User: Fold this.
Amino acid sequence: MLTKLKGVSIAQWIAIFIFVSMGISMIFITVEIFLAPVEQTPGQPKVTLRSDYIFLLFECVLGVIILLLPTILSHRFKFEIPGLVYILFLIFLYASIYLGTVQKFYSTVPHWDKILHTFSGAMLGAIGFSFVNLLNNDKHVVMKMKPGFISVFAFCFAVTLGAFWEIYEYTFDGLMNLNMQRYNLSNGTPLAGRAALADTMGDIIVDVVGSLVFVLIGYWALKKGRPWMINFEFKKKQPKEGGAK
Assistant:
């Protein structure tokens, strides 16, 4: 059980911190939307446009929705999210949306994008193991099924969600003329051929590597009878005793 401070768990404090960070950023971004220029001035240094701030605001709103999503889903479908999984999820959310996009770590910190993709691949691979239990409504199903099947499912689960993220980037690059998939250089020069695919393919590759490494470790643990991934296990909520019949 996670340590609590005045009745609030560490995960909840982290969530509150992220929520406040997003909220403050949304206020400043909203102000900048009205102050920023609509288009670049020819011959002048590149500046942040109104459309860029609109996308930042969208990312922050999306971050808040994603922040609330685990709680909403757990109440709706009656399952408990492991504290360790929730903390890893919060760290990834903060690092990707707030640090990566709002604080521009993607463009200022070398390989920040690849680090996050590797981390997310491993995290989603871990969740994939316990997700089998949840889908089958049986907390012992992982120990009953063959380790190879569970491992393949966890790997496909992680890589599929990574593919959905690339679809998200591709979609909004087209809708808002962004450069999340790095098909342009920082000065706006378009890339061609394999160079234009390098960022997207690099993301997919590290997604695969991160998830594969974790899945192989999980497979070994199941074969040896050491299912340490129980720490990532989603559990169905049990009805309270003495409730209405």
User: Anything to note?
Assistant: The longest strand covers residues 4-5. Residues 111-237 form one domain.
